[in-house]
Amino acid sequence: MAEVGPQQGPLFVIRSDIDALSIEEQADVSFRSEHPGIMHACGHDFYSAAALGTAIILKQQEAQLSGRVRILF
After folding, report:
1. Sign of CA pseudo-dihedral 30, 35, 41, 44
2. Residue 19 CB neighbours (<10 A)
3. Which residues, including other chains, have CB under 8 Å from residue 66's CB and lie 6 or more apart?
4. What is the pLDDT of residues 13-31, one digit of tens each?
5. N or C: where does the chain have the smaller number of CB atoms within 10 Å of the terminal CB?
6. How is 34-69 classified by DSSP, letter by letter?
7. According to the model, what pLDDT value does residue 27 have?
């Protein structure tokens, strides 16, 4: 969890799923899952990257926020 912005004002929450699925990885690629029977197959890596990118941008603009943003991973 990370938080950006002042303590007063409204609270907004951004949630990002980072769990894996119980699917056997079939692709022979360098970023292949190292755990047999488990892989990231439905965009969780993107969700995590999008939430992290959002947190970075919000942190850069923190002085302009009227409330707190909580980012949950």
Report:
1. negative
2. 8
3. 5, 6, 9, 10
4. 999 877 777 888 888 888 8
5. N
6. SSTT-B--SSHHHHHHHHHHHHHHHHHTGGG-SSEE
7. 83
Structure tokens at 40: 């990231």
Question: Residue 61 is part of which domain span?
Answer: 2-72
Tell me how many domains the chain contains. Answer: 1
Question: Higher confidence at residue 56 or residue 73?
Answer: 56
Cα 68 → chain centroid: 17
Say how many residues make up the chain: 73
Whole-angstrom distance, CA of residue 42 vs CA of residue 37: 15
pLDDT score at 41:
74
Residue 3: CA atoms inside 13 Å, Cβ hemisphere, count?
A: 9
CB atoms inside a 10 Å sphere around CB 43: 11
